[in-house]
């Protein structure tokens, strides 16, 4: 979709080899399309924040209906392209719909900007008046590890009254494009619709260079290689917001073990966190630090992992990924670590004392558990690579 208009073509394709082979075809980006993007800069500064939130709330109402045709298509293709289970994709979209409501959208603005008035008015601060201006055209280079997460980047950009160009990821071509197409179902002439373009181009291509040069700001998600590539090509005046590779941790305090119900609740939440996106998201926990009672925590967590696997089955895993997990389990056994698993690679819990072992992580619902006398001992490992710490 370019400037809110559908472009139909099938010159390019992406192929996925999962349980079944899948091919997705889409238009090739040429000079004519680039010109359309260049000309589609719609001025959202004329909209009030209320109007923007109202538009996205209407989009959310469409996606709330599980039988909405674009949601059905997006879920089907996302399941095939990402390899995640159908229940994982469905829950992901449900969570995304919850974001597309007035209260969460307003909380987002308040949390990241503060006073809403800065977006609509000139606000008096001391002897001056302050107003937040949109940056302009924002290029969003998305990653496909967590389907609905990337489009949130586009929505936040719209809340700040920017126009958006979204480069959908090869791992999830469906979610961004079908979300954008749903804008047309709300109002195909709306400024947000007309200021939105969703497309795909190859890395390190001439098209990529041109898209970067057209952008006033870039939001890039993914690995270090993708981020460095954008950083090297962007003009020094182009603001780049980076969402690079990160990991999560869990901190479990000794107080949790004073009450069986509390321990069960924490283990249930820990299992769900481990299962979400099969541990591929930046917030996914890779290491759990447990005060004094690691064995008890592991025992309880194994039971909850069995339960969560029934509700959210693990998705597709390549033979290479399975081999990586199996190898890590073998090494752990050899090193004297305690390994908990269901005699498969569905999930794995490894109790270890070796922090260095946790840095070469196989993912795939694998959690290293390290016992400490005091959680303060773990603080030195919360570095810039850690995005999220769940504390219980």
UniProtKB/TrEMBL annotation:
Biochemical pathway: Lipid metabolism; fatty acid reduction for biolumincescence
Q: Reply yes or no: does the keyword NADP apply.
A: yes
* Coiled coil start-end: none
Enumerate the Gene Ontology biological process terms: bioluminescence
Gene Ontology MF terms: acyl-CoA dehydrogenase activity; oxidoreductase activity, acting on the aldehyde or oxo group of donors, NAD or NADP as acceptor
What keywords does the record list, in alphabetical order? Luminescence, NADP
* Catalytic reaction(s) noted: a long-chain fatty aldehyde + NADP(+) + CoA = a long-chain fatty acyl-CoA + NADPH + H(+)
- SUPFAM superfamilies annotated for this entry? ALDH-like (SSF53720)
Which Pfam families does the protein's record reference? LuxC
Q: Does the keyword NADP apply?
A: yes
Superkingdom per UniProt: Archaea
Q: What is its EC number?
A: 1.2.1.50
Per the similarity annotation, which family is this? Belongs to the LuxC family.
Q: Describe the task this protein carries out.
A: LuxC is the fatty acid reductase enzyme responsible for synthesis of the aldehyde substrate for the luminescent reaction catalyzed by luciferase.
Name of the protein in its database record: long-chain-fatty-acyl-CoA reductase
Give the species this sequence originates from. Answer: candidate division MSBL1 archaeon SCGC-AAA382C18
Lineage per the UniProt record: Archaea, Methanobacteriati, Methanobacteriota, candidate division MSBL1
């Amino acid at each position: 979709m370019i400037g809110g208009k559908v472009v139909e073509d099938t010159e390019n394709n992406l192929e996925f080899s999962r349980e079944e082979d899948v091919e997705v075809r889409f238009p090739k980006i040429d000079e004519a399309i680039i010109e359309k993007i260049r000309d589609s800069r719609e001025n959202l500064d004329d909209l009030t924040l209320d109007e923007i939130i109202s538009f996205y709330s209407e989009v959310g109402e469409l996606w709330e209906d599980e039988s909405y045709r674009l949601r059905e298509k997006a879920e089907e293709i996302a399941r095939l392209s990402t390899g995640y289970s159908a229940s994982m994709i469905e829950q992901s979209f449900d969570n995304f719909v919850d974001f597309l409501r007035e209260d969460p959208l307003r909380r987002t603005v308040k949390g990241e900007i503060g006073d809403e008035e800065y977006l609509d008015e000139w606000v008096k601060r001391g002897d001056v008046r302050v107003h937040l201006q949109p940056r302009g055209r924002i290029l969003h280079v998305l990653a496909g590890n967590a389907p609905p997460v990337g489009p949130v980047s586009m929505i936040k950009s719209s809340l700040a009254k920017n126009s958006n160009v979204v480069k959908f990821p090869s791992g999830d071509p469906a979610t961004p494009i079908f979300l954008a197409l749903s804008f047309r179902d709300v109002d195909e002439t709306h400024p947000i619709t007309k200021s939105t373009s969703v497309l795909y181009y190859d890395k390190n291509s001439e098209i990529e260079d041109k898209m970067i040069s057209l952008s006033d700001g870039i939001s890039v998600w993914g690995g270090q290689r993708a981020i460095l590539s954008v950083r090297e090509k962007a003009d020094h005046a182009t603001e780049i917001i980076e969402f690079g590779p990160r990991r999560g941790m869990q901190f479990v305090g000794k107080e949790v073990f004073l009450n069986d119900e509390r321990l069960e609740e924490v283990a249930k939440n820990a299992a769900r966190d481990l299962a979400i996106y099969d541990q591929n998201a930046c917030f996914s926990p890779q290491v759990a630090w447990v005060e004094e009672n690691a064995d008890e925590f592991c025992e309880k967590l194994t039971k909850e992992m069995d339960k969560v696997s029934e509700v959210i089955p693990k998705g597709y895993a390549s033979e290479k990924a399975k081999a990586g997990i199996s190898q890590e389990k073998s090494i752990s056994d050899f090193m004297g670590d305690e390994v908990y698993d269901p005699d498969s690679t569905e999930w794995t819990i490894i109790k270890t004392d070796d922090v260095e072992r946790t840095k070469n992580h196989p993912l795939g619902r694998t959690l290293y558990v390290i016992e400490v006398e005091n959680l303060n001992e773990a603080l030195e490992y919360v570095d810039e690579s850690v995005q999220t710490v769940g504390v219980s």
